[in-house]
Amino acid sequence: MELLRAIIRVNLFSPAPQTAPGPGRTRAAGRRGRGGAGLQTDTASDGARDGASSRWCHAPFTAVLQGFAIMQRHRVAGMTEMALIRMNAWGAAARDHDTGASPAEALAPVLKRDAPIIVMVHGFRYAPGRPAHCPHAHIFRAPDDTAQATPSWPAALGIHGGQGGASGLAFGWQARGSIWQAHAGAEVAGVALARVLRAIQRRDPGREVHAIGHSLGARVILTAMRHLPVGALSRVILLAAADHASTARTALDSRAGRQARLLHVTSGENGAYDLALHNLIPRRHAGDAILGRVDLPGLATLRLDDPAHLSGLAAIGHPVAAPERRICHWSTYLRPGAFALYAALLGPRGATLHAEVSRLTQPKAAPARAAAWSLPLPWGANAS
């Protein structure tokens, strides 16, 4: 039925083909000309009309193809809507971005699908509902929206309603204002996200839920983990996390953190931002450091400016391009190959890949040096 409607729309509501006028403007005008000029005009007009008539005769076949294309676009859009929900934090509560529905109502479409849920959290300077700054119209836009150069996170992470597609929860929060306001707001938004994730676990305790967040979005996720039960999150990717090591330590030691697999991805290109945050945001204690400036025990840290890490990724089949800029806050997801790696880490064999990536981030022990000589110990044996 939808195909029939598309064909009717293409045939009945498209303008009829028009004959292109020849040099003599009309057939009659051509006849009033002298000899060959009139004949030339008639021939040009006949050829144009014959070509147009031919195109018109083939219009039904073209309409069928266009109809299939329309159906495909509607099918993809509908499947995307089934697989992707948009939710925002308003204070410590969350509501559906489009309808204002509660999390329980908004989650219903994705919980009907047998697919893992990937939670996506943006960072600084975004604000849901504000046209120039809304993440749902930018990085969280639908996978079929290819008008922008910046990658669509849902598209890049394999979120769609087709076979093998993941479900997505695009989580927005008010991250405008000063860095101090946004830093404080991220903690409140983390409480709202925790409520959403607890709602998922209550309704479907076995559902696999992953999370990925950039910059202050990583702080939102780390805060949420403090309020979550065991098993609420499976795998977590933090991109250039704008938070202190103490926050991550608390998250790792939480009930949810002890079971979840976490990976922090950073790069020297983000160093200027890490330094600024280090100087602007108060620390919990004197030794506290921004995550990008320290390797926290228990948290695998993948450094995309480390040649050893890049070569290790290439060796396991996930090459990521080398840095192109000295300063870039977004390189952890704009770098070619980065999103393909994250999609795989959050995909069906992500647990195995996470273990492989974690191993290659471990510092290599210095090779032991053989002693050139040794003295006998008093009890007659040397240390071994």
TrEMBL record:
<protein>
    <submittedName>
        <fullName>Alpha/beta hydrolase</fullName>
    </submittedName>
</protein>
<dbReference type="InterPro" id="IPR029058">
    <property type="entry name" value="AB_hydrolase_fold"/>
</dbReference>
<dbReference type="GO" id="GO:0016787">
    <property type="term" value="F:hydrolase activity"/>
</dbReference>
<keyword id="KW-0378">Hydrolase</keyword>
<dbReference type="Pfam" id="PF05990">
    <property type="entry name" value="DUF900"/>
</dbReference>
<dbReference type="InterPro" id="IPR010297">
    <property type="entry name" value="DUF900_hydrolase"/>
</dbReference>
<feature type="region of interest" description="Disordered">
    <location>
        <begin position="15"/>
        <end position="52"/>
    </location>
</feature>
